[in-house]
Design brief:
4% strand; 36 helices; mainly alpha; elongated; six-stranded mixed β-sheet
Amino acid sequence: MRFAGVQPDKFTFPHLLKACAGISSLHEGKMIHQHIIRIGCETDVFVGAAVVNMYAKCFVLEDARKMFEKMLHRDVVSWNAMVSGYAQNGNMNEALALFDQMLLVGMKPDQVTITCVLSACAKLEDLQLGQWIHCSVIGRGLQPDIFVYNALIDMYAKCGSVEVARELFDKMSRRDVVSWNAMIAGYAHNGCASEALGLFHEMQLAGLQCDAVTLVGLLMACAHLGVLQHGKQIHDYIIRNGSKWDVIVGNSLIDMYAKCGELIYAEIFFDKMSSKDVVSWNAMLAGYVQNGYAGKALSLFHQMQLAHVAPDLTTMVNVVSACAYLGALQQGKWIHDYVIRRGFDSDVFLETAMIDMYAKCGSIEIARRIFAKVSHRNTASWNAMISGYGMHGLGKDAIVLFSQMQETGVKPDQITFTSVLSACSHAGLVEEGWGYFHCMIQDYSITPMVKHYACMVDILGRAGHLDEAYDFIINMPLEPDASVWGALLGGCRIHCNIGLGERVAAKLFDLDPENTGCFVLMSNMYAAAGKWDGVARIRTLMKGKGLNKTPGWSLIEINNRVHEFVVGKNSHPQIEKIYAMLENLAGQMKEAGYVPDKNFALRNVEEEEKENILCSHSEKLAIAFGLINTSPGRPIQIIKNLRVCGDCHSATKFISKIVNRDIIVRDTNRFHHFKDGLCSCGDFW
């Protein structure tokens, strides 16, 4: 055009700038802006709005705002360009602040403005403001177009008012695929997976072709509901219809298969993806962590680094959670240093994950220090610290922290009370537990869930109030599930009440017939009491159902490598040294007064063989391995998948005194800190 000698004017520039915005071509956009300034067209309202829009779409909000402020005359298009620029770049608060300013200067918003600010409300989950804007639309006599309706549906759904979203959806005289997508995604976001899948069926009957956004919403619904069969049908639909195969749909497929427990499918699909973004890696990492494969998650993170994929906050939360699951303190500390180097350490979600990780790795003091440094604590931060105190048996500290939480005005939620009640259970605080159970109902109007009743049963059961716990269950307003009866069976096991245990076990066998835990607990109760006919009967029942006892295993981390020891397995390369160490310790322990508690051998064999069985318990193997492979005086930390048995608990107290080491054991319920022949639990666990 310029070669032909024709000069662009104020009508040409908006089209040129729109083209630059469309392909995010900042360099060309700046060149055009400079030309506009030279020929004096910058004061034109249409050109000015186009410049603002170009900078915003190219992610240079500072320059967009400078141009916006320079404009002498602004029309609604100019305001929309700046408001939408903030919204599209994730600056929702700035978008809403500018909208307020727009109203103050008397500029009347249009449908585009309303769509932008509703999008901001949805992202911030600000239902109150969203409702005000909705009322404002009605009050100003604006007739919502399809874009405003879609934005309203999205806003209400993301703010948790899915019923209102559906009412608006049903009112629409005309719907496009975005309308259906907003409603399907809204159902998925609110956990209404069945409704999402039902709406997809309606969409097909209406003759609409779904797009990638539809598929993502449907796969999210399948993931929430855990309905693998439906998820596979969506996958088949994608293949049959040749739907556009992009990375977003691929990520959703990985997430769906992982959340449905089908990690093999997730892995296959992840490996097949030719193009992966950070979300792809995060979906696979989360899948491993959620399904208990924390070691694989850490290996995948290493692969991610080798692939030069920059991690984000979600990545780091997943990796920190993997360290927490494994109790891998050394790796957790390395990850913590990595987080600081990358500048992620000021995020409250990651700080909360760090608190949880250090607590679960046995370093409650480091968890406490991180908690003290969190500048903006949310409910989850307080919950993580309260829970950490609880799992370490520091019930009084948990209660003090809960009081501080109340004083700061942070409102406790259901998880808070689960953590507080659990802390009371581990510390044997029965009266305090009752107090917090009633406080939840009376002071905070929180209706107890089954998990809260299970906590109360656990408090009573551990303390030996078995009849009171049984009556509490019978009078529950909710139907008690396996977790409630299981808590009572655990109490029966601790206090050797076989009569009540048999009644409770009968209920558990009906409620959860595939759960090996209740069978094993009952078998152990019979074995401890020498009732071998009862043991045989339980084993016959398990064999008939095809159930196998979960073998006990223990983990120990040495030099950033996690070693696993499984009861009855002697495949470790240092196994001879380990047994030699245990034999040496056994002699010293007996001289110090240790007597093996053969009730925990749990087999009908000769007394000498029972002692050999006790010696092969996984935590003893792990402790011996730790003593061999660490320097004198260094603490030893073990993670065990089952409740530590009475004999191992007694033996570890003696070992800690003989070798002058701190020994930290995390079992399925809590932490035990052994030092100088004593345990932090006070023999109450």
